[in-house]
């Protein structure tokens, strides 16, 4: 429940500011609302409500017909005034209503520009020349149905007193039940603006009203003045005005559905601030309530005035179906019956008013209803400002709980189904939103729970219930036949139902009483899937089960047969039959146990099921009666940690292993023991089966055998789970062992980084023939471990990292096992590259990188200065001498003595046969050449190198 104070000024508005009609100033406040009115087209009714000054701007107010709407598409449209209602001698409320059909879905901004605001607005410079602009944004989408924006039911006709906190609440109501949010906004308008302008712009020079005045402090005197809006309640508060005058502010009301914003309204309003000695009245309203639909809400609201003045009480909100100008909404914004409040006439202090609302099923919704009550005083004597106080009252309405829920197993004993029935719902479908559903919830086990219909959703899930289906609200029966989760024989189930309404209403009923039922057990129950030994080829698992209850061995349907099926993995589905066991169901025969051999229990868990067959007396043939639920072996994992081993285990079984004490066994011999019980682990959370072994032994009955967890030792484990079926017929304790598994603690200390060296090249010592015609190369790496440093010396391998270019991040090239500390990197196209080495400890810790060592190539290129292209096979081609080394790319350009280019080629061979680019021989003589060559270097971004020189081309006499 929120309380806020609002000073009102009606009579003072007549004389506070000396306006003249010729000034043509009239706009104080307003907003634009919309509602879709057609199911077959995107047609909207758009309503603008504006509040006009009838003192200083009566002439302009008279002439404000039409106004011009911009619908977010196309030009402005003239809209005639639909009504003009006198609020008081100073103000009228004007409505303009238009109908518009949008061509398609989209986001549209509806705007209206009216030429002049009031004169002398303190926080808007030259306000008389500034336009009054409104904007509402809507999402047009057929999927939103007949959506409407919220309506603002509390008129924006507010005044404030200097030094006193002022608050306003728009009493926003959304008929669709969408969620609303609020935020401040800078008013819109432009100087010398024209009607019909569709472009919205923030007011130039607008000032936060809290920055105007000298003593800008809050009412309590504890800090600076503030202007805030509560994003949830919509309370807009200015704490507190410092100077008299009129001010304009604006705020936005956002409309949200399913986490998506589908629209927003801007309310622009004016506040008149005066100085007054009058004390504001006080009002007391009931606490917020949450009631079941059909409840008659009748509450008294009381008010007092400290000055003894007479007071008037009034109320605003959606339940009244009354517009801000006092009209009854038609069409209605809420279903009947409507709320009432009386009296609204002047009373002596203390005064009392009565709020009355007969709720019904049509009022159910997820969002609460907000009712704003107001008391305004009527001070004696002239010249005093009326003061008012507002307080909100929030009402949440939920639907009645479904009644008479019952449950019974399906008539077909061989089926796995439960039939639910309940009484016809008390709220008829006509009173509920379309697509209202009955939601059906189920959980294993039966225990009483409490559910608060006024709390947030999710209570059913929090108590273990799962939604299994929804049906139409007119339904009174449902058959649960394994939807979403297989029903289990011998398990007790709890069901509850609840009415849920679609978005945006999102209303719900109270949760029904629970009904509990057992699915009859006429087939065996698997009780044990326990690992007897852990081997990769000769592992053993023992499977046990119960005899089927309810089967009479003498009823003529024997003999009977169990068929055992197995699948690999905790959730395996590749079931194959591994045994068929004939039985007469004699209690003296051991026919409910099977030892499964030759398994790989090291790598796998296994899953089992049993099919039960009876003999058809008519045909003598075996027929399947039913099949058990699948049950897996327990799967244990062990991970080495710092002086510890962390264990976790799981099982996929039809019974519950939760809320039991599981047992942890340890051995230093191997995965098959012998084992010593070292801990009893209480399991309190579903499927959270974990234990950390620090070497202790907390179970003394079999002898205490603690160990010091060492990285040099391996420790082996197995776990014994304790479980139980939830049905009363199978309350025996179920003990099952996991496979054995071994792990070693780890040491998190890292090795020291090695010291790396790579064989080098002495470029100065190379001859022109070095590496001639060689196509592959190799680099030899050697490294050493540092002899000092606090690091792990237990190194098992070295990781070698390589990058062909310096500056690149190296990648893993190879690994070598310790104690080897050399590596030959072969089959390279050049020597260029960079290397790092990292040591890896026995516990898997990798050291930091060694020093990085880079090796470069020794490029070489030498061109001749004469050649004789005479076809004798000797020196016929101009090309590099000897063996050029590590050339990646090259370009050769040849020009004659006059600078004319005769030949150019990008062939990496850099050959020229003495012909021009047209293939004709060039004459003998001296030519200039330029070679641009890119060598393979460890600096991959190194620029190309340029070689320039001359070459003499010799031809026999007379050659051309």
CATH-defined architecture of the largest domain: Sandwich
- Radius of gyration over all CA atoms, rounded: 45 Å
CATH class type of the largest domain: Mainly Beta
Unreliable runs, pLDDT <50, ≥5 residues? 3-24
The figure for the number of domains is 7
Fraction of residues in H or I helices: under 10%
Arithmetic mean pLDDT:
90
Shape: flat
CATH superfamily of the largest domain: Immunoglobulins
The end-to-end span amounts to: 109 Å
Percentage of β-strand residues: 35-45%
Number of DSSP strands?
62
Pfam families: CHU_C
Keywords: Signal
InterPro entries: FN3_sf (IPR036116), Ig-like_fold (IPR013783), T9SS_type_B (IPR026341)
Protein name: Gliding motility-associated C-terminal domain-containing protein
Question: Can you lay out the helices and strands and say which pair or pack?
Answer:
Elements: E1 3-7, E2 27-36, E3 43-53, H1 58-63, E4 67-70, E5 77-79, E6 81-88, E7 91-101, E8 106-114, E9 132-140, E10 151-152, E11 157-161, E12 166-168, E13 172-173, E14 179-185, E15 226-229, E16 236-239, E17 245-257, E18 260-274, E19 282-284, E20 289-292, E21 296-304, E22 310-317, E23 340-342, E24 346-347, E25 351-358, E26 369-378, E27 387-398, E28 406-409, E29 418-421, E30 437-444, H2 459-462, E31 466-472, E32 477-480, E33 492-500, E34 515-518, E35 526-533, E36 539-545, E37 560-568, E38 576-583, E39 593-599, E40 606-615, E41 622-627, E42 631-632, E43 635-641, E44 644-650, E45 660-667, E46 676-683, E47 690-693, E48 715-723, E49 734-737, E50 741-743, E51 755-758, E52 777-784, E53 795-803, E54 811-817, E55 822-828, E56 833-841, E57 853-855, E58 866-867, E59 887-895, E60 901-905, E61 925-935, E62 945-953
Parallel strand pairs: 11-18, 20-27, 58-62
Antiparallel strand pairs: 1-27, 2-3, 3-7, 4-5, 4-8, 6-7, 8-9, 9-18, 10-13, 12-16, 14-17, 15-16, 17-18, 19-21, 21-25, 22-24, 22-26, 23-25, 26-27, 28-29, 29-32, 30-31, 30-33, 33-34, 35-36, 36-39, 37-38, 37-40, 40-41, 40-42, 43-44, 44-47, 45-46, 45-48, 48-49, 48-50, 51-52, 52-55, 53-54, 53-56, ...
């Amino acid at each position: 429940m929120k309380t806020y104070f609002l000073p009102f000024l009606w009579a003072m508005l007549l004389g506070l500011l000396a306006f003249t009609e010729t000034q043509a100033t009239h706009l104080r406040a307003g907003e634009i609302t919309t509602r879709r009115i057609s199911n077959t087209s995107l047609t909207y009714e758009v309503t603008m409500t504006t509040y006009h000054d009838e003192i200083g701007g009566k002439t302009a107010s008279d002439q404000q017909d039409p106004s011009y709407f911009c619908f977010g598409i196309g030009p402005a449209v003239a809209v005639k005034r639909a009504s003009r209602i006198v609020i008081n001698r100073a103000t009228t409320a004007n409505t303009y209503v238009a109908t518009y059909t949008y061509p398609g879905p989209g986001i549209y901004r509806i705007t209206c520009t009216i030429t002049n605001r009031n004169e002398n607005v303190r926080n808007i410079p030259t306000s008389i020349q500034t336009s009054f602009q409104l904007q509402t944004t809507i999402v047009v989408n057929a999927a939103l149905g007949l959506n409407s924006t919220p309506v603002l039911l509390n008129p924006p006709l507010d005044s404030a007193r200097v030094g006193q906190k002022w608050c306003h609440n728009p009493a926003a109501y959304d008929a669709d039940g969408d969620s609303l949010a609020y935020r401040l906004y800078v008013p819109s308008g432009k100087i010398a603006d024209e009607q019909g302008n569709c472009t919205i712009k923030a007011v130039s020079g607008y000032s936060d009203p809290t920055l105007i005045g000298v003593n800008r402090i809050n009412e309590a005197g504890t800090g600076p003045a503030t202007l805030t809006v509560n994003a949830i309640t919509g309370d807009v508060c200015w704490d507190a005005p410092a100077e008299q005058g009129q001010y304009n502010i604006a705020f936005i009301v956002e409309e949200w559905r399913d986490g998506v914003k589908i629209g927003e309204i801007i309310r622009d309003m004016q506040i008149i601030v005066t100085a007054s000695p009058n004390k504001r009245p006080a009002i007391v309203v009931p606490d917020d309530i949450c009631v079941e639909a059909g409840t008659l809400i009748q509450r008294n609201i009381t008010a007092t005035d400290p000055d003894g003045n007479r007071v008037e009480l009034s109320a605003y909100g959606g339940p009244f179906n009354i517009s801000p100008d006092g009209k009854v909404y038609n069409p209605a914004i809420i279903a009947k019956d409507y709320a009432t409040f009386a009296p609204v006439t002047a009373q002596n202090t203390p005064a009392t008013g009565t709020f009355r609302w007969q709720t019904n099923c049509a009022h159910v919704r997820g969002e609460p209803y907000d009712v704003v009550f107001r008391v305004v005083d009527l001070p004696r004597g002239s010249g005093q400002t009326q003061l008012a106080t507002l307080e909100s009252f929030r009402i949440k309405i939920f639907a009645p709980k479904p009644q008479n829920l019952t449950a019974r197993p399906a008539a077909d004993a061989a089926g796995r189904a439960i039939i639910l029935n309940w009484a016809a719902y008390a709220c008829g479908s006509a009173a509920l939103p379309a697509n209202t559903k009955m939601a059906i919830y189920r959980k294993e086990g039966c225990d009483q729970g409490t559910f608060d219909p006024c709390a947030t959703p999710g209570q059913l899930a929090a108590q273990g219930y799962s939604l299994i289906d929804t049906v139409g609200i007119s339904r009174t029966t449902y058959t649960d036949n394994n939807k979403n989760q297989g029903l289990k024989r011998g398990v007790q189930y709890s069901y509850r139902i609840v009415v849920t309404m679609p978005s945006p209403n999102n209303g719900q009923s109270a949760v029904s009483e629970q009904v509990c039922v057992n699915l009859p057990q006429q087939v065996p129950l698997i009780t044990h899937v326990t690992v007897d030994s852990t081997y990769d080829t000769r592992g053993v698992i023992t499977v046990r089960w119960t005899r089927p209850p309810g089967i009479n061995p003498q009823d003529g349907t024997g003999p009977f047969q169990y068929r055992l099926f197995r699948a690999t993995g905790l959730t395996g589905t590749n079931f194959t039959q591994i045994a068929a066991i004939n039985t007469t169901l004699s209690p003296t025969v051991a026919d409910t146990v099977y030892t499964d051999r030759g398994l790989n229990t090291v790598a796998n868990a296994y899953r089992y099921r049993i099919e039960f067959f009876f003999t058809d007396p008519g045909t003598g043939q075996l027929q399947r009666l039913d099949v058990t639920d699948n049950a897996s072996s327990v799967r244990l994992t062990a991970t080495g940690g710092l002086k510890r081993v962390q264990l976790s285990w799981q099982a996929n079984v039809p019974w519950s292993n939760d809320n039991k004490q599981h047992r942890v066994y340890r051995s230093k011999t191997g995965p098959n023991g012998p084992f010593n019980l070292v801990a009893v682990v209480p399991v309190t959370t579903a499927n959270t089966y974990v234990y950390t072994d620090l070497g202790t032994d907390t179970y003394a009955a079999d002898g205490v055998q603690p160990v010091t967890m060492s990285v040099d030792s391996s420790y082996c484990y197995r776990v014994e789970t304790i479980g139980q079926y939830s049905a009363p017929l199978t309350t025996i304790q179920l003990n099952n062992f996991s496979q054995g598994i071994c792990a070693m603690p780890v040491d998190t200390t890292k090795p020291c980084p090695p010291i790396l060296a790579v064989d080098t090249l002495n470029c100065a010592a190379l001859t022109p023939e070095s590496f001639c015609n060689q196509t592959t190369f190799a680099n030899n790496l050697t490294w050493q471990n540092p002899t000092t440093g606090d690091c792990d010396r237990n190194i098992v391998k070295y990781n070698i990292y390589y990058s062909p270019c310096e500056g690149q991040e190296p990648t893993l090239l190879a690994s070598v096992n310790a104690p080897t500390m050399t590596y030959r990197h072969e089959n390279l196209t050049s020597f260029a590259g960079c290397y790092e080495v990292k040591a890896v400890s026995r516990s898997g810790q990798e050291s930091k990188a060694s020093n990085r060592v880079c090796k470069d190539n020794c490029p070489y290129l030498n061109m001749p200065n004469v050649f004789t292209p005479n076809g004798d096979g000797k020196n016929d081609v101009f090309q590099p001498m000897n063996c050029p080394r590590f050339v990646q790319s090259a370009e050769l350009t040849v020009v004659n003595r006059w600078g004319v280019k005769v030949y150019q080629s990008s062939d990496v061979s850099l050959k020229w046969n003495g012909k021009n680019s047209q293939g004709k021989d060039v004459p003998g003589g001296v030519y200039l050449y330029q070679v641009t060559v890119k060598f393979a270097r460890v600096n991959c971004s190194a620029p190309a190198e340029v070689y320039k020189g001359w070459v003499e081309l010799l031809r026999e006499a007379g050659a051309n």
